[in-house]
Specification:
With 62 residues, the chain is mainly alpha-helical. The protein has a domain at 16-54. Helices cover 81% and strands 0% of the residues. The protein has helices at residues 3-12, 17-56. The N and C termini lie far apart (91 Å).
Length: 62
C-alpha cells in the first residue's frame, strides 16, 4: 500500500471522533458545575449560619 493512500485513509477515518466530542462536552459540564458550586458555596454557608443563630435563640417550653 502506498504511503499517500495510507495518509488519505487516515484523514478520512472518523472513528473516535464521537469520543472526543463526549470528552469535551463532559469537561464543559464539569467546569460549569464547579463554577456554580464555588458561586453558591458562600451564600449557602452564610444562610446556614443565620439559620443556626435563629434556632439557637429559640426556647422550647415544656
Amino acid at each position: 500500500m502506498k504511503f499517500s493512500k495510507l495518509i488519505r485513509r487516515f484523514v478520512r477515518n472518523e472513528e473516535g471522533a464521537v469520543t472526543v466530542d463526549w470528552v469535551v462536552l463532559t469537561a464543559a459540564i464539569v467546569g460549569l458545575a464547579t463554577a456554580i458550586i464555588l458561586l453558591v458555596q458562600g451564600g449557602a454557608s452564610d444562610l446556614a449560619s443565620d439559620i443556626s443563630s435563629a434556632l439557637a435563640g429559640i426556647t422550647v417550653s415544656t
